[in-house]
Write a structure and sequence with these properties.
mainly alpha, 13 helices, 74% helix, 0% strand, disordered N terminus
């Protein structure tokens, strides 16, 4: 009699078999037993698969919340895209170099509170998704050097977009009417802490590493790996991503060196973010960077529609925090 594994190989390709295994794991994570798959049914001659037990109300709520978080994460990709489009357009139209905070102010002035609320919710969901990826590896980065780099980048991204979500909420209450110099303020706060200069040097080094990681993604075109296959192979998508990630990588590296310099000299005024990096690049390089950021914004809009997003396992996160959703 054929084994369950041999039947699985007959009923579908790698993606189908992966779905079967993921479904089995999902059943276990919700407190149920091993999922009785169609392959098991055929292999054992049972005829039909044994139905899963009904989910408890709390478990259904967890599954629903995960699905809603995934939908909001797509809003976060769209919000990120809109933010980068605005940053690029401001440089082209008025030669103004703005970072994400300044772009949020511009969006708040033109779109008002409804737009800021949507962006805040999207950034919050995106930030949580990225932090969950860093903690639980839901994107499957793996244990190697590349995997560690991917999870570290996810952690940095999660923190950045969580802060942007908070800034968007503050702008709704007119508490952040001015963008402010976030990099310098953050550096000043860090320098006031014990070992502050070392913390700044480490933070800058991480940002430089994140920039280099962006350039590696450009070389490998790995940013298309998690797009729907229907668009992942399109040349215009690949070149849009290459241009966008190149610009981001360069800006991250320049900003990282600013922060390292601030830590080495213990001077907060030397720290700088995207806005300062764009000013440092100066014309005409800043226009090329602006074009790249504009492309990254458009690529983010493509991701909002076509990216394959793995759901955040809220139940697993709750149990890690000592809160079991099954009780």
């Amino acid at each position: 009699m054929p084994s369950a594994r041999s039947i699985e190989k007959r009923i579908g390709g790698p993606r189908t078999r992966r779905r079967i295994r993921d479904s089995s794991k999902a059943a276990k994570s919700h407190g149920g037993g091993e999922l009785f798959t169609p392959a098991d049914s055929i292999a054992t001659g049972a005829g039909t698969a044994r139905p899963l037990r009904p989910l408890r109300p709390v478990e259904r709520s967890t599954v629903t919340a995960s699905a809603r978080l995934t939908a909001l994460t797509r809003v976060g990709f769209a919000a990120r895209g809109l933010l980068y489009v605005v940053i690029g357009l401001l440089i082209f139209r008025s030669r103004r170099s703005e970072g994400p905070s300044g772009a949020l102010v511009e969006l708040g002035r033109s779109g008002g509170d409804p737009l800021l609320l949507a962006m805040a919710a999207g950034f919050a969901a995106y930030g949580l998704w990225r932090l969950a990826d860093a903690a639980l590896d839901i994107e499957g980065h793996g244990p190697g050097t590349r995997g560690i780099g991917g999870r570290l980048a996810a952690a940095v991204s999660g923190i950045v977009y969580s802060v942007l979500a908070w800034q968007a909420f503050r702008l709704m209450d007119s508490l952040g009417a001015a963008a402010g110099d976030g990099a310098e303020e953050g550096a000043r706060t860090a320098l006031a802490l014990p070992g502050g200069p070392l913390l700044l040097v480490l933070a800058g080094a991480v940002l430089v590493g994140a920039g280099l990681y962006q350039l590696v993604k450009v070389y490998q075109c790995s940013f298309c790996d998690r797009l729907d296959p229907a668009v992942a192979g399109e040349p215009w998508v690949r070149w849009m991503g290459r241009g966008g990630y190149t610009a981001r990588g360069i800006i991250f590296i320049v900003s990282g060196f600013f922060i390292v310099s601030a830590g080495l000299d213990s001077r907060a005024s030397e720290a700088g973010g995207m806005e300062e990096a764009l000013r440092w690049l100066d014309s005409p390089v800043d226009l090329a960077a602006a074009a790249g950021l504009l492309l990254f914004g458009l690529f983010s809009l493509v991701e909002a529609r076509f990216r394959i997003i793995h759901q955040v396992p809220l139940g697993q996160l709750a149990r890690a925090a000592g809160l079991d959703p099954r009780h």
